[in-house]
Specification:
Blueprint: H1 2-35, H2 42-57, H3 61-75, H4 79-91, H5 95-108, H6 112-124, H7 128-141, H8 146-158, H9 162-175, H10 180-190
Helix pairs in contact: 1-2, 1-8, 2-3, 3-4, 4-5, 4-6, 5-6, 6-7, 6-8, 7-8, 8-9, 9-10
Length: 191
């Protein structure tokens, strides 16, 4: 039951994160590309980013991957685009490739979502302690992301550390009080 809740919460969080990512990336595209001396056509890059998002939304992983590879060739392995490749790996359940990519991205310490995705890749390989470490480090970077608290809580729950799991879920609920499924889970744990 906890696993089903985790999967549902994870899907909701991914959709929210993806929407925020697109907003941020559109704002960063111009300054990021100019600041790094990109020669690539900005309009083409933005169009490819929209295509990637469309393909992800429609579960067209092969098509998304083709766009991401083109973006990587145009942007010189930009970390934000590498993150998109990581999403391809996650959607394919290629946890080893996802772990490898996100370990590299976490070294840059640019974004808490890299730690969240590293945690997911580790969790799916049943590397629970390492997954928990990744989630907790992500929390050090961003304490406003409910998904990170939920995922850390889930790992604590798997490790049998109920008190710590409840604390994480409670913090997630403070951030997302409208999350009914999370609220139900927290109430069940309190009982």
């Amino acid at each position: 039951k906890s696993h089903d809740l985790y999967k549902e919460l994870q899907a909701e969080e991914r959709a929210k994160v993806r929407a925020r990512e697109m907003e941020r990336e559109e704002l960063e595209d111009e300054s990021d590309m100019e600041g790094k001396g990109r020669v690539a056509n900005e309009a083409h890059i933005k169009a490819l980013l929209r295509k990637v998002e469309y393909h992800f939304d429609h579960n067209e992983v092969d098509e998304a991957e083709a766009c991401v590879k083109e973006l990587l060739s145009l942007t010189g392995n930009d970390p934000h685009i590498q993150h998109q490749m990581g999403i391809v790996y996650i959607k394919r359940a290629d946890w080893v490739a996802a772990e490898r990519l996100y370990r590299e991205l976490t070294k840059l310490k640019l974004d808490a979502k890299h730690f969240v995705n590293l945690g997911e890749a580790l969790l799916m390989q049943e590397k629970l302690e390492q997954a928990l470490d990744a989630y907790l480090y992500g929390l050090e970077m961003n304490r406003e992301y409910a998904g990170n608290f939920m995922q850390a809580g889930y790992v604590y729950e798997l490790l049998g550390q109920t008190k710590e799991a409840k604390e994480m879920y409670e913090k997630a609920l403070e951030i997302e009080p409208e999350n009914g499924e999370l609220r139900t889970h927290v109430l069940q744990m309190r009982a």
